[in-house]
Amino acid sequence: MNPYIKVMPLWNEVDLNLVEVKQSGTTRTKASYASGPLRFQIPRGYLRYGFSQYKTISISNLDPKFQEWFLSLEKVVSEGSEPFKSAFSEYGLRLKADDTTLVFNHKGEYVSDEHVEGYLKDFDISCIVDVEGAYLWKGVWALSCKVYLMKFYEPAPKIPEFEMVEDEESSTTLSGCAFLP
Q1: Which pairing describes strands 140-155 and 102-104: parallel, antiparallel, or unpaired?
Q2: What pTM was estimated for this model as a whole?
């Protein structure tokens, strides 16, 4: 292995005790890890909606152990500030993914596509994430999390669309509810 290439740690290799947090004014904190950026690879997940119009993505189907670990990371980086809005929602982990995000295809080749709304919809992805710190917006604290690098895999299989055809012979009108014997 080349000694000049730094291997990115996986999320479960990041020791939360080594995360350093410094105040940056009254509405921000800055996070670092071992005197460098707080950057790590998250588990492979699924992009149901692709990029949003706000240059964010929501990754679902993530390992529950990762979610538990990430919630602990949020507490460390926000220094327990309340009220706090988690980057996790019912849609998954929400991350900033803008035009500076490096995107690679399933072969590991750089893809220079424009990151428009819906881009990479229904794809499985792996990401390297930067957690820059926490910020206060409209009285609520949240983490500033950005996708540094993203790799997408072959598209997830889609459910085929079937056209419904009404059968003329069985056009009975139903009313109410009945159980079959």
Answers
A1: parallel
A2: 0.79
